[in-house]
Amino acid sequence: MHISLVNHWLLTYLLTEDMVVKVQALHFLVRNEKSQSWRIKNQITLLYISSGIILINELLDHCGTSYEIASLFGITFGTVAALIKISLLNVNHKNILYIVLNVVDDWWKVEDEKSKNIMRENSSWNGMLFYGILTPLLLYTSKFVIESIPHTIITDDNATIYVRTTPMSSDCWNLADIPTVIYLIRFACRTVEFIVYNITSCGIDLYFLVLASHICGQIEINNMNIKNFFVDRKGVFKRDYFYKIIYRQKHLLDMMDKLRESFNYTTLAVLIISGIHLNIMSKIIK
């Protein structure tokens, strides 16, 4: 069962809210995700292939400033990083699914008010991060899309030029002479690619943070239970309850280990790609 890009964000959104009323939605999303994943992956792959052909064509033109060319390289490497993130998470999909299902079960089984308050506090902070990342992302994408809307400019000799470009492109890549349908397809591909790149780059990082935050909250709850062990039992040692606490602590440590395994190679791959990108930019921008 693979966890797709769209489901990453849906799960992240649901995990950042008070999930007491959303547990059924989470169960449905996680357990029915397999039927959705292959369609989304095929569409994203087709998008990346078509957009990659366009990017290569623009780079071969050797047109634009060094900053604009570096920005295109940035999109290219960012797209590669996004695909690697998704692929590596799918390689570790069993670990991720195990963690997510346990997160859902934690919200389902929680009973005492103190534990609920700790979980709600963590989810509220995660919610702030979710909207704090999503809002600038949408504004940033809207800025480049609006700037690329077809327009006319007047040159110094009063000549009028009709300019049609795509987001994150240079004005010298004027697409005014190509058929309108082809231009609209290229514009849409670049816009969607830009959105997918940003969502994947930020979304998977936030996804990791949300899962890690939940595990930290569960450790805090378990530590609270350990401290209150004799208080809650009025000084009487309850062996079954004690073993339950120890087993829970072992279970949380196992979840932490699975989370570490799932994101170790993702982090390493992204750092390598970022290093290569920075080296190329240092050669281009002088």
TrEMBL record:
Give the principal location in a single coarse category.
Answer: membrane
| UniProt lineage | Eukaryota, Metazoa, Ecdysozoa, Arthropoda, Hexapoda
- Where do transmembrane segments lie in this chain? 66-84, 262-280
Protein name according to UniProt: Odorant receptor
Alphabetized InterPro entries for the sequence: 7tm6_olfct_rcpt
What do the Gene Ontology cellular component annotations say?
membrane
- Membrane topology per record: Multi-pass membrane protein
- Which GO BP terms apply? signal transduction
| Molecular function via GO | odorant binding; olfactory receptor activity
Superkingdom: Eukaryota
Q: Does the record's keyword annotation contain Protein biosynthesis?
A: no
Write down the Pfam families for this protein, in alphabetical order.
7tm_6 (PF02949)
